[in-house]
Amino acid sequence: xxxxxxLIGIFFVIFGASFWGVGGTVAQHLFQSxxxxxxxxxxxxxxxxxxxxxxxxxVSSNRKHLxxxxxxxxxxxxxxxxxxxxxxxxxxxxxxxxxLGNAAVATLLQYLAPIFIIFYFIVKGIQKLxxxxxxxxSLTLLGTFLLLS
Length: 149
Hints:
The chain is mainly α. The protein is built from six helices and no strands. Helix 2 crosses helix 3 (about 75-100) and helix 3 (about 75-100) crosses helix 4 (about 105-110).
């Protein structure tokens, strides 16, 4: 990887993280003003995001691969499952948390997700529970409790 690509990548990471942070605060303002419904907001946000991603692929040199994922049943099923459970539910629960609480608490709760990933790996037999896992889970829950109380 050359230095220019690395700098562009760093720029996009900072740019994306900034918009993500601002997005939660703006969503909180919209929900508190009472003019925006969570379901409408999440649906519109994901729809526009999808259109922007598809559009960016259309103008790239790889546009011939745009609909290739739909031709393979395994890929198609994974995409649909990820869309519903990986994006829609995560986005909805995050925005609903903002609407019912605030952006800071919703973001904090979102950072508990690695605990569920650890449990998933343990249940699936991919990984065994280690002392460091237990320590990380305990400290995460303790920190969350202290921040929220």
